[in-house]
Design brief:
Layout lengths: L2 H27 L3 H16 L10 H23 L4 H8 L2 H12 L6 H24 L4 H21 L7 H23 L5 H4 L3 H29 L2 H7 L1 H13 L7 H19 L18
Helix pairs in contact: 1-4, 1-10, 1-12, 2-3, 2-8, 2-10, 3-7, 3-8, 4-7, 4-12, 5-7, 6-13
Length: 300
């Protein structure tokens, strides 16, 4: 891998990994999770709005994909992180890859062999071990794990839909997803949450704005742009598999920055999860890559 691409890949993984730590710290301490997600997607929509064009015959699919990838998944994911540690959340989110493969088999009629089936089973078993062990520690609830799994299912569903969209550039898709997603998220936060504006007038305004800036300009703009840039220059599987580094960084950040506990069950379960996902990615040829290759992981 050329040095320039390697540096950008590592920076992208660093930003995405630390972003999960930021989400956990922010939603767990001083801001409602769906409100935070709505602010994020609104700013992304404003920034990317100059890129948007109407695509006749495609807008219905774009809207549905946007609700999955820019709305429902963020509502579930940010709320999930309010009930799950950053390290556990990062591992649970790795289920995006096996869930996407399963949906691709069901809806796109893709074929998978025994190695990828084994990878799916191992990854799910690993997450199960992590969830059960962390539930006893009180830092992570099964509700948080369930919400994160549902978020990955929503993201994977959106990725399947994106697979059928043609002629729309990735950053323009991200902009449309932000438009439709922010509409959903504002509706959700106004319906389910209360006193959201209090964070904008209290002492938490500055840490909130700092976290939101990192989310928008770091995870969304820099992270997604870099991902698409790398996809254009490197084999898809090389980029997809290397993003496992973001998970490792998130786990390290949760432990060393937030002081989250690490048990032997978490270590074993984590190795199982990363190993299972790694098998899936390695055994997926570029020309038959899962929809995860089409759109960047929404952990970011």
């Amino acid at each position: 891998m050329p040095a320039r691409e390697l540096i950008m890949l590592v920076l992208m993984c660093l930003v995405w990994g630390l972003h999960l730590v930021v989400i956990r710290a922010t939603t767990n301490q001083f801001v409602d999770p769906i409100f935070y997600a709505a602010c994020r997607m609104t700013l992304v929509a404003i920034i990317l709005s100059p890129l948007l064009r109407i695509h006749h015959g495609q807008m219905k699919r774009i809207a549905v994909a946007g609700l999955c990838l820019g709305g429902l998944n963020y509502a579930l994911m940010f709320t999930g992180f309010a009930h799950a540690s950053a390290s556990v959340g990062a591992m649970v989110m790795e289920l995006y890859v096996p869930i996407t493969v399963v949906l691709a088999v069901v809806f796109l009629k893709e074929r998978i062999g025994l190695p990828r089936i084994a990878g799916i089973v191992i990854a799910i078993a690993g997450v199960g071990l992590i969830a059960l062990s962390q539930e006893r520690d009180g830092d992570t609830s099964m509700l948080g794990v369930a919400l994160l799994v549902a978020a990955m299912a929503s993201e994977a569903t959106g990725a399947i839909i994106v697979k059928k969209i043609e002629g729309v550039k990735p950053l323009e898709l991200l902009g449309w997803f932000a438009i439709f997603g922010s509409a959903f998220l504002w509706t959700a936060t106004l319906t389910l949450e209360r006193d959201q504006i209090a964070v904008l007038t209290g002492e938490n305004i500055w840490p909130f704005l700092a976290a939101l800036s990192f989310t928008v300009f770091g995870a969304s703009i820099f992270g997604h742009t870099t991902y698409y840039w790398l996809i254009q220059r490197l084999p898809v599987n090389q980029v997809s598999s290397s993003t496992l580094l973001a998970t490792v960084i998130a786990v390290a950040g949760g432990v060393f920055i937030l002081g989250e506990p690490v048990t032997w069950q978490f270590i074993v379960g984590g190795l199982m999860t990363l190993g299972g996902v790694g098998v899936i990615l390695i055994r997926t040829k570029d020309k038959q890559g899962p929809p995860s290759a089409t759109i960047a992981p929404i952990e970011n």
